[in-house]
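Bench log, entry 3. Co-assembly request; chain sequences pasted below exactly as received.
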Amino acid sequence: MKMTINKIARLTVCATLLLAACSQQSPVVSTAQAQLLINGAGSSFDNPAFMLWKEAYSKTDPNVQINYQSVGSGAGIKQLVSRTVNFGASDAPMTDEAMKNAPGKILHIPVVAGAVAITYNLPGSPALKFDDATLSGVYLGQITKWNDPKIAALNPGANLPDTSIIVVHRSDGSGTTFIFSDYLSSVSHDWASKVGKNVSVNWPAGVGGKGNEGVAGQVKQLPGAIGYVELAYAKQNKLPVAELKNAAGKFVAPSPESVSKAMATATIPDDFRFSMVNAPGDESYPIAGASWVLLYQKQGDAKKGKTLVAFLKWCVSEGQKMSPQLDYAPLPDSVQQRELKLLDTVTY
Amino acid sequence: MGVQMTTTPASKTPAANRAPSGARLADRGFRWLCLAGALVVGVLLLLVIWQLLRGARLSMDRFGWGFFIGKTWDPVSEEFGALPFIFGTVVSSIVALLIAVPLSVGTAIYLTDLAPPRLRQPLSSLIEMLAAVPSVVWGLWGFFILVPILRATLYPVLQKCLGFLPFFQGPIYGIGLLTAGIILAIMILPIVTSISREVLRSVPNLQREAAYALGATRWEVTRIAVLSYARRGLFGAAALGLGRALGETMAVMMVIGNTPYIGLSLFHPASTLASGVANEFTEATGDLQLSALFELGLVLLGVTILVNILAQVMVRAFTTAETRRVA
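Structure output for the full assembly:
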C-alpha cells in the first residue's frame, strides 16, 4: 500500500515537472513562428498603459506581439542589462554608475507621466491645502497635530481637530515613493540631508502600507491619517486630495492637465533623465514624475529593433491619446517631438 | 535540522532475501527512487543556501557581523542592519504561539476526549479548512475587518486594564506587532490543532482508564494521564507552528505596519524578515540593497533553523527530566 502511494506520488511529480517544462517551452516556439515577439519588463506603474497599448497596437501591426512583465523597475533594469528583454521600464532614471555598468548605451524614453496625490482622513473631509514646508514637516515628524498653526494658517476656516497626524507611506519600493521623496528633497534641505530620495527610504515617521491600495486602506481606516498615492488610485476610490502650493506660489490640484503643464515647463535635458517635481509655471502640479522605457541605442537584432522602435514611436505619439483614460498625463507635443527624434538615433 | 532524522520510520527491514528476483528488483528500484527523493530535498536546501550566500556576499563583505546588530535600514545612504527585522519576526511569532498553542491544545483535547463522537469529524474538518485559506486572504481580511475591530474594541480595553505593562503602552494604530501575532495565530491554528489531535489520539486508552480507576476527575485525567503523556508531541506541534509563523509573509506584511522597530510596545508597527524582503525585493535598484535583502533571507533561514534546534533541545531536556522523575 505504502509503496503504491509512493510510486504514484513520484510519478505525479515527474509528470508535473515534465508538463511544466513543456508548457514553458511551447508558447515561445509557436508565437515566434507566427508573430514577432517583443519582450519588455519593469515598472508596475506602467503596466496599465502597456496593457492598453499592446491591444491597440496589435490592430496597427498584427504581426507584432508585445509581452510586458510587470516585475518592478529594479528587476526591469536588471533584465535589460542582462539582455533577457528587448526593453525595460523604470520609474526612476538610471544612475550614471548603473549606465556605466551596462553593456551598451541605454536610451531613456519617457512614456507616461503621473501625479502623486496627497490624501487624508479627517472628520467631514474638508478641502485642504499644503505647501512645501508643511508637507515636509509632517513627513519629517516635526508637525504632529492637525491643528498645528502652520496647517491652520494655510487652511483658514477648515475644521482642524486636535488629533495626532498619522503619517502613512509605502512600505514596498515604488516609483511613487521615488517621485514623492524627490519632491521633498527638492523643497526641504532637512529632508534632502536626513532622508534623501529613492524608491524606498528610511522614513523618519509613520506606518507603511503595501502598494497604493495598502496606503489608501490605512488612510481610510485610521482617523487623522495622511498618505500619498497615485492620482488614478485616489480618483477611483474617491479619496479627498489636497491642493499643493507650486513653485510659482499658486495652489494646484492634481490632474492629468496640471501634470502635463508641469512637464511642459520642466527643464528636460537631451538624455531625458529629468525630474519634474516642483516645476515652474502657474498651473504646474508640484509632485509629478515620468516613467521611462529603457532600450539600447545599438540594437542587436535589426528586425526586432526596428519593430520595437516603431512601437515606441507609436506609444509616445498615438498612444498618448489614450493616457487620460488611465489618469496618466499625456506628454506635451514639444516633448513628443524630441522623443521621436531621439528614437531616430537608434542603430541596428 | 539534522535532529528530524531521529523520527525516520524503521521500516526498511531487509526481508527481500527470500523473495523472487522480480520483486527484489522492484524493491531495489523503489529504494533508489526513495533515496533520490530524499536527496532532492537535501540538494535543494543546499542550493538555496549556496544561492543566498552568493547573493549576500557583497553585503557580508561590507557589514560583516555588524549586519546582525545594525538598527538602521536606509536604502538611500546604503546602510543596512537586520536587528529590527529579526526582532519583529521573533516577537510576532512568539505572540502567535502564546495565543495559538493553548487554543489548539484545548481544541484537540475537546476533539479527542470530550466532544460527542458525531461532532468530532465535522469539527476537525472545519478546522482543517482554515488551513486552505490562502495567506493573502488572511491578510486582506485582517487588514479590512480585523484591524478596525481590534482598534475600536480589544486594544483600548487592553490598554486600560493592562496599560501599566510596557507591552500595552503607546498610540494604537490597529496595525502592529500584536495584530500580526493574532493573524499568525489564526494561520497556525489548523496545523497545531491537527498535530495535537493526532498526538492526543495516540495516548493509550489504558492510561486514561487507569487514571479513572484511581478516582480522578475528568480534568485530572486530562492533566495527569493525557497531557503529561503527550507533552513531547505537543511541543513538537508547537515547534512546527512556530516554523510556519516565522516565515509567513503576505498576511504579516499587510497588518504589521512595515516600520523597522525595536521596543516593548506590542501596539507599535514593526517589520519582519520575510515582509522586509517581500517589500523591497522587486524595486531594489542598488546592488548593495539587493545583497542586503539576500542576507535578510539568509538570516531568516538561520533563525528558523536555530529555533527548530532550540525547540528540539528543549523537548529532549524536558522529556529526559520527565522520565527521570517517573523512574
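The two ends of chain A are 64 Å apart (CA to CA). The first strand of chain A starts at residue 36 and ends at 42.
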